[in-house]
Amino acid sequence: MAEQLQSFLRLKQVKILTGLSRSWIYEAIRRGDFPAPISIGARAVAWTEQSIAEWQALRIKQSRKTVS
């Protein structure tokens, strides 16, 4: 069975979608609080659209728990 294609997001797109800075993203990756990028070339990394969407959903869920 063929796997479904996934979209790759480069850092610029991830920053726009999350509203986070480059330094915050890489610090959060180091802490394990943000999905790590995957290598797509010798000097290029990207994130899957799905991993960012899952991270966003988790952040929304966590923020609603603290508000309640």
From TrEMBL:
InterPro entries assigned: AlpA, DNA-bd_dom_put_sf, Prophage_regulatory_activator
Lineage: Bacteria, Pseudomonadati, Pseudomonadota, Betaproteobacteria, Nitrosomonadales
Name recorded for this polypeptide: AlpA family transcriptional regulator
Coiled-coil regions listed: none
SUPFAM superfamilies in alphabetical order: Putative DNA-binding domain
